[in-house]
Structures are given as C-alpha cells and as structure tokens.
Amino acid sequence: MKKTLVIMLCCVFSLALFTGCGSKKKDKSNIPNSAQDQEVNEKVNKDAEVDGFSITNVVLVKEETGKSFKATITNTTNEAKTVKFLTVTFKDDKDVEIKKVKAMVDNTIQPGGTYNLVLTLSADVMDAENVTYVFE
Question: Which region among 7-16, 63-72, 91-100 has the lowest average model confidence (pLDDT)?
Fold first, then answer.
C-alpha cells in the first residue's frame, strides 16, 4: 500500500512540475499598452523661447495614473539664470485660460544647462490648444 501511495504521489508531483514549469507563456495583463493606456495632446507639444530660455520636448499626456506635463528648459544666454517659479498657463482654442499652474523650480540654470520640468496635474487640461510660460 505504501509503495502504491509513493508512486502515485511521485506521478502527481512530476505532472505538476512539467505543466507548471514548462509553460513559456507570459502574463501580459499588467504590462500597459501605450496606445490604449495614454492619450497625448499633440496641440501643445510646441517648442517655445521665453526670457532667454528654450522650452523643448514638451509633452502633455493623460495616462491611467493621471495627467502630466513634461518639458526641458534650456538656458540660452551667456550667464547663469536663477528661476524661483515657473507659471504654466493652459488655454483653449479661444485663448481662454483652462488652468494656471505655478511650479516651484528654485534652481540656477547655467549657460547651456537644462532643467527637466515635470508637473502632475489634477485638472483636465487635455483640451488645451496653447501653453504660455512666465518665469519668476
């Protein structure tokens, strides 16, 4: 009886081992699909020149986790410039303000140096057609 039980258990464990470990399929349910899980506002993705700064790589994106605005700020002057705050204003197609965000930068940007701005937004600014910047 013991021998039969041991043989049956060995068969069950072997079968479980081969079926579980031999599978090459990967669960992709937790990997976000960028085309499905995010919406990009192409209208505001424009470079700008303001007060000796070049604003490039502008992206306004709505993802599952929320909305974010990203830009690279480059000092285009020959002297270091200190930025305490940057006010970013989102406007609709009639140039009416949708949302104004004042971001604390508090950074000195050297000539040719860059600062990566990342804003997490709670307001719905995905309908914005234009973005303006004010450095303080």
Answer: 7-16
